[in-house]
Structures are given as C-alpha cells and as structure tokens.
Amino acid sequence: MTPSVLIAQITDLHIKRPGEKAYGIVDTAAALSACVAHLNAFDVPLDLVVISGDLVDTGTPEEYAHLKRLLAPLKWPIAVLPGNHDARDPMRQAFADQAYAEPSGALNQKVDVRELEIILLDSSVPDAPHGLLGTPTLAWLDSVLAASTSRPALIFLHHPPFLTGIWHMDQQNLRNADAMAEIVRRHPRTRLVAAGHVHRSTLTSFAGIPATICPAPNHAVALDFGRKNVPAFNVEPPAFHLHVWFSGAAAGDLVTHLVPIGRFDGPHPFFGDDGKLL
Q1: What are residue 167's phi and psi, to 5 degrees?
Q2: Mutual angle of helices 61-71 and 28-40, in 10-degree steps
Q3: Which residues pair with 156 in a beta bridge?
Q4: Are strands 190-195 and 202-206 parallel, antiparallel or unpaired?
C-alpha cells in the first residue's frame, strides 16, 4: 500500500548566531544544513516538516534570522512550535506566516494535511526549562479534538508528557501531563503524541496511544540512568523521524521511521539480473 501522507519531524535545532557553536563544540548550523539537504533528497514529496521546538538556542531575533536563512533551501512546507530555548514574541515575528490559533500568547496551531489533522501545542514556559500546557491551551486542545469524532489527529509538542529514565530531563518534562492525558482519552481520534526536548529517539505509550521522542540533527542527551554524571551530551549519529500515514489500511495506519542523516554506502541490490539472491 502506498503511503498517503508523509510528515517529517525534526527537533532541537539550537541555532545560534552565525559562527557560534552550541556549548562551544557543536556546529548546529552545519548540522541543520545537512538535515535540510537530506530532506530535500527524498524522491517522494513530503507533505509537511514539523519542527518541534528549540529552534534556536537563546531566543534572540538574530538567531531566528540565521535560522530562517538556513531553512530557506528546504523545499517542503513547515510548521513550527516553541521549546524552552525559544522566545514566543521573536519566534512569532520570525514565522509570521504560521497559522497560530491566537494573535498573542501561546503559539498553538492546527494544520490540515489531507485526511490528517496536525495539532501543535506550545508547552513552553517563559524563562523555565520545564513544560506546561496553560489552561487556555488545554481548553483549545479539547475544543479542537471535539470538532470531529473520526478525523485522525497527530499531536506534536516539545516537552515529553512521560518519563524517560534520564534523571535531569525527567525533571523538566511536561508538568501537567495528566491534564493532557484526560483530554486525549476523551477524544480517541488522536493517533500519536510526538515530542522533542531529549534529543533521543524514544518510543512508549501515552494515554493509551503511541508516543515518541524525535532525535536531533546535532547532539544527543547522554543516556544516563544512574545519576553518576552531571547532565551532559554526546555527539551521536544525527537523525529525524518520518511519520507515514496509510489511508484505508486494515491495521497499522501510522508508522514512524528513524531516518539517519548523511550519505551511506548503497543502495545495493539483493538480487542479480537473473533474479537470484546475490
């Protein structure tokens, strides 16, 4: 069966001012450029690229201007939501063409992609690392999901509404996940909750549906379960998530792929010209 909707999710870009590196080590601009080139190389059209927070590192207009220059070559449409490193007003000004639900405050959005509804939630808390869905955002989510009983919805936000086992990240996840879960359970048309923030590919369930964390194109939070080290990162292979929707599938109508960023040896055929396995 041919996929009907392809949605790439990239996250935690952490773009700084031109020439600066994150933590003095990671060239996040070069990492994003490599990611954009990889996305552009897809031989089938992508319907949307969701950028799920921490678009820049300190929330300044200069960083957003640099980010927009780096994203300019991307040939697919984008939808953005903020993370804890972003700043709402500069981000709203930089991405003024986005379909924000309100003219001020939280940068929530709803984007229709054929039979899918893409819901982007602003979980950022100004000047704080943790996430929280404000009362207006929760009410908006409830009303959006209540507008249909059958149209499939995918929810994106920055802060995971679940624990990962990485102690210092779990201290700054979504603080009112229970309130979000109550709404999601009330509207079972939600098919996925997809987050960022942790810079690692992670899979679990939330409110009875699949839930993921998208990896980053630059660096990964160290997989530290034992509190033996200070909060740290590793430079691991960069990647993103590709969410694939199949219309009319008997089962498994949504599949998420981990896509490494870069050029790799291949593709090599499994079979020779005579049809036999090589």
Answers
A1: -55, -45
A2: 30
A3: 120, 194
A4: unpaired
Identify which of 205, 246, 195 has the alpha carbon closest to the alpha carbon of residue 9. 195
Average pLDDT, the chain: 95
Q: Which long-range contacts (CB under 8 A, 24 or more apart) does 249-258 make?
A: 249/1, 253/152, 253/191, 254/152, 254/154, 254/191, 254/192, 254/210, 256/192, 256/194, 256/203, 256/210, 256/212, 258/201, 258/215
- Kindly give the pairing relationship between strand 78-81 and strand 48-52: parallel
User: What is the average pLDDT across 106-133?
Assistant: 97
199, 212 in Cβ contact below 8 A?
no
Beta bridge partners of 7: 48, 243
Summarize pLDDT for 62-99 with one digit per residue, the tens: 999 999 999 999 999 999 999 999 999 999 999 999 99
CA–CA dist 196, 228 (Å, integer): 24
Can you list the pairs that 94-100 forms with residues at least 24 positions away whose Cβ atoms lie under 8 Å? 94/61, 94/64, 94/65, 94/67, 94/68, 95/64
Mean predicted confidence (pLDDT) in 21-50: 96
Question: Quick one: pLDDT band at residue 251, thresholds 50, 70, 90?
Answer: low
What's 5-247's CATH class? alpha beta
d(CA 258, CA 215): 8
